[in-house]
Write a structure and sequence with these properties.
Strand content: over 45%
Number of strands: 49
Shape: globular
Radius of gyration: 30 Å
Structural class: mainly beta
Number of helices: 8
Helix content: under 10%
Largest sheet: 31 strands, antiparallel
Oligomer: single chain
Length: 981
Amino acid sequence: MTVFRHGLRRPGVPLRASALRGAAGIALLAPMVLSGQAALAQTAQPATPAPPVSTATEAPELIVVSGVRASIQSSSALKRELDVVADTLSADDIGDLPALTIGEAIETITGASTHREKGGASEISVRGLGPYLGATTFNGREASNGSGDRSVNFNMFPSEMVNTIAIFKSQRADFVEGGVAGIIDLQTVRPLSFNRRRIQIEGRAILQEYDSKLLDPQGPGWRGTFSFVDQFEIGPLGELGVFYGYQAGQSTNPEELYNASTTWQACNNTLVVAATANCVAVTPQNVASGQTPAGTPLYLASGSQGFAQITESDDRRAHIAGLQWRLNDSFEINIDYQQSTYEFQEDRQVLNFSETLRGLSDRVVTPDGVLLAFSGNSTIESSPFRRTQIEEYDGGGINVAWRPTPRLELKFDYGFSNTYRSRVDREVRMRSFSRDIDGATIPGVLTGQRLPYTYDARNGWLPSITVGAGFDINRAANFSAAARTRWTEQIRWDEIEAVRFDATYQLGDTGITSIQAGLRHSEHSFEDVPQARIEVNYGTTTADLALIATANRACAIAFPQTGFFEDAEGGTIRSWASFDPLCLMRSLIGTDNQGRPADLRSSANRDVLETATSAYLMANFELVSNGRPLTGNVGVRFVRTEVESVGLGNAFTVVTNPDQTIRLVADPNSFTRTAFNNVSEEFLPSLNLTLEWSDQLQFRFGLFRAMSRPDPEDLGAGRTFTLESGVAFTSVDAAIRSVTASGNPATEPLMSWNIDLSAEYYFNRDSMISGAIYYKSFQGGFETVLQQENFTINGQPVVADVAVEQTSSDTNQIFGFELTATHRFSYLPAPFDGLGFKLSYNFADSNFETEDLRLGDQFDVATGVTAPGLIPPVGLFGLSEHVASGSIYYEIGPVDMQLIYKYRSQYYQQFVGAPAQNRLVDGVGVLDFRASWRVNDMLSLSLEGSNLTNAERIDYMPVDGSIRQANLYGRRIFLGARFRF
């Protein structure tokens, strides 16, 4: 029996291919970029930027601009021509997007902010609404990914081949549904619009600061890009444009990490904690019941704490290609294809204090429960770790535009997007013991394996931990017992196929100028094995200790780097005993690659098919109001979403006792199939207005209803049964204590009503100022409820209560405003006339509250009673009250320089995967630098720096000030050369 409806796939086997996709072939390609209405793609695209408009305040320039100035001009022109509230980042030439990565480019756009992982930008929040409330498209199409959500893995697309990034903040009826926060659309070059031949070769050397700390440095990384675009006249067959780009690269990403567990508890601060016991937990429930008096002083403590030295090597390859054929003004075909492979290997040396709730004394606690210092005792573990991951993406499509009459235009689009991910972890635990591998007693060890230690977080953002005298954490022989090997794999397939038909009928030049209508149908398939695990444990028997000692001697290595956390504020641990994880696995179990288990079935697996069908009708109009042009559109979109989710549940045998009562006997090798279906239907009206007050000033208004579907991983149908204690029950129902769900296929989309009002003033091509205010009334949260579900156990029908998460009916509000300004000091005397700047700021405030999973308000679904929380709630996922970016650029002849600063204030960041307690990421500012020199028309050289201040990332949990994680990534320098022909 396989888990998935289509059968469990093998790694490397191509994803599902349709006949149409096969006919297109791997040579098909090139995106639809920015046309005026629906742009030959699955979502409406912005108009191609119009030539810059000369105004009375600007004399016509005859020079050709490039670099940062050209990008700002292009972005402003595009923003001005759009018929929705939007912000863009655009480049006129291939590879001129002013950013090293797509994520870094997006966070310079007004209202957008990113979360930093591995030193890079990821998980985009727009206007304070978390990534789960937004949508991202690539060339106008939904893109799959390996993360289980609906975001785009920006690492899969080379920034050198993306020419335009648009964030649509208000929406039109012809947009693909899915963005309460907004829609981020990435666009590559359109060959015929590019209108010139370009052959380009670009190479970058990547220097990672922390690589020099490694005992075995990997040396400079590299990134190489080749692209080609050209157009051909083919006689009576019209015009043909082609585009091809290829990028390959390798890099290393060393990282220094401190972190605590994701499970925190409140402890009673009035009690003494015995050296052999954990602190006494306090919960909202026992305070509500009176078991613990209200107002009892508390402190917050985590279950474990540790340090990790991380070395990561990345290998990336990507192809992007396109074909654009224009027979005449009435017929055009575009084909595009993208393929990329992202592989990385991560090696970690981990020092773990695994029992940090034990024996807590000498406590220093703040009034809000933050535990700043204490003494305790814990087992200490050295756990080397190797992660390998491969993620493969391929996507693209074909669309056709045909104008059978001067007034009627018909468009067809087919697209596909497929992702396969396999992540394999190999981990070995080596644990402290009272005797070393030679049998010698280690002084200072308590109760066989535990060590006394002190913790102090009062002298910097990195806690200082000191182990008691007698145990040397740098001596490998001291980690001599209770080894464990663990092999884990996560496997995911994510596939999207969609077709779309659009029709536009032109009516006239004034009044209602055109009517648009369209249909779209998509199928989104998500299949997931979140954890296939093989684990082997060893104890303290004579045989086990001898085996561990042999492995220890064979596999101990020097700590892989120098100067661990030397750049941190605080901290005392600079190294510890380290091991080769693969060597340990070979020594202990005979192999370092156990392979996935023969049976991958689990109630945690997911198999989801989401089918969406939508239709829209929209009118575009152009009116005159008090002598001023008023343009816009009004329409409605209808969306029907069907979810079919297949999962597995535990299988039981019903055994009748002699007294005619029954008991249930679990069969660990058997499962029952569960399937759920759900349908939702929504109407999404929209209205957009643009009032051109003067040649320089225009106002915009947007009113629309939007939706965001739940993430595919939240729609699982697996069910895990927990039995009551005892062996005598009168019915199967009575023998079942609870049923835990891996998801809820009936989760409804999150809906919102949105209002946007903006004003834009364009002084000239280099200078503009814009401001916007926005208001959203939205559903942004989930609640746990009990719902009855039908099961069959050993042939008997059973009705059981299942606790599932569903979309909360509560609505919340978010209010904000944003400002953007660009200016070039062209009126200053040389050489200061090359100076310019771009500034953006977004403020967002919401009344949304997220209660902590364990210590916040606790709602009892059985009684309907809420126990008040012990700690305050946090805000909305991804909401920073303040987000700002600013850049100063200087262009003097062939030299172009830019200094970029990006800042976001503190925000709540959910964990990927299973729900966890509240995590706050501290506010941070990051400084980058870019410089280029155009040696001649063919050659340019560049120097770029990322994270120049080596900004740390600090996470607090579950309240502000209680440190949970600290990261340092180091600075990165990029040296590049580009040849254009």
